[in-house]
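Why do we care about 3D structure at all? Because function follows from shape, and shape follows, mostly, from sequence. That is the central idea of this module. The next example makes it concrete: a single protein chain, its amino acid sequence, and then its structure expressed as C-alpha cells.
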Amino acid sequence: FPPARIRVNPVSADPASVLPGWAAPAEQSPGPDWKFRIPNAEGPFLFRVTGLPDDWMLKTVTVGGRDITDVPLEVVRGGGDTEGVQIVLTRKSATLAGEVVDARGTAAPGCTVIVFPEDRSRWGLASRFIRSVRPDSRGRFSVAGLPPGLYRAAARDAVVEGQWEDPEFLELLLDGASRVALEESSSATIALTLAEVR
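And the structure:
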C-alpha cells in the first residue's frame, strides 16, 4: 500500500493533557520515501499508526535501538530534534472472529465487543492490544491486527467511547470475559453471550 494511506499518530501520554492544545502535534502521513516528521512535539508521546489495512499492524517503535513501542518517548522542546524513530509494520498479526447472542440465543448486533489482553500491564492509553468493534446485523464480528498473546473478549450493551482504555472498566469485565490465546499469523473464533447489566 502507498505511504500516503497511513498516518503516524503521536499520542500524548501526559496525564495533565486532557484535551490537545491548539498547537499540539498532529498525525502525519509519511512521504514517498516512508520518512515522517512531526513538528510541535513536546512531552511524552506514544506513536501509533492509523489507516492500516486490516491484516497489518504496528509491530515495534524504536529510537536509537531502544524499544519504545509501549513506553512514552519524552520529547523536550529546545533540546534539538529527536531523530531516528523507526516504526516497523507487519502482516503477521492475529485475528479473532465470532458472533454475539443474547440470553435467548438471538443475534445481538447492537452491542460492543471488547477484546483486551489478560496481562494488566498492557491495559491503558493507546494500547495495541485492545480493540472494540460493533457486530454486523447478524451479530458477527471480526477483529484483526492483534499482536500474539492471551486475550479476553466480552460483549456489552452500553459502552462509552474510549471506556476500554480505563483499567477499572476492564477489571469489571475480566471475570466474565471469554479467554482465548492468539498466536502470530493465526486466527481464532469465539462465541460470546451479551452480558446483562446489573
